[in-house]
Amino acid sequence: MGMIIIKTPEQIEGIRKSSKLAAKTLQYLEQFVVAGNTTAFINQKAEEFMRSHGAIPATLNYKGYPAASCISVNDEVCHGVPNQYVLKDGDIVNVDVTTILNGYYGDTCKMYSVGQVSPEAQRLMDVTLECLNLGIAECKPGNFVGNIGWVIGNYARKMGYGVVYQFCGHGVGVKFHEDPEVAHDADRNSGPKMKPGMTFTIEPMINEGKARVKVDKSDKWTVRTIDGKLSAQYEHTILITESGCEILTSLD
How many domains does the chain have? Predict the structure, then answer.
């Protein structure tokens, strides 16, 4: 267990601004996640929007990653490298963006439906969003970080899905990846206790089939389900407050 950075009020304000911009980026991209557009085009629009608002994309060149966003389609779980794939009716698409604004990080992702998606795909997305909301409901001072994963894992399995355990949420704000790790499948009352001033992501990846995933050999980044079945993910950056939490990447 490394050092968990408790943020100062000044840092929190910076992280909040960056998080709002990340959320606005996803909102802006709605119009482009449509049949006929490539994921590379959506990535280009994401980068233009971030830069035009004074931010830089955190993923670009991070450990060699080649793009300004991660765009994962259908059986892609996360870290999908934008390419010349043309979106088609029925696709489900995850777009994950992290902004660096004045040195502060905001990290969020959401699912988009392209045209009419199958009832199975819609149910998977609905359950995944509920997993995120259940995890957020655990966020309050004194509670264990592990209880986020405990409620998510139990609910997802009850609904018949696999919970990705090879990737997790993480502290974020003054660096891209900080402590603590936030597992989406964890033992009850495990991990560190939450304290006011902690900022971290919750980003459950829920699979239609098996929980295990594999990294694509062609681009060395894109993570796929092991069985070719669909995967969904939603993510928010959360601040622990004195009385509960604030969803920094929400526009509500």
Answer: 1
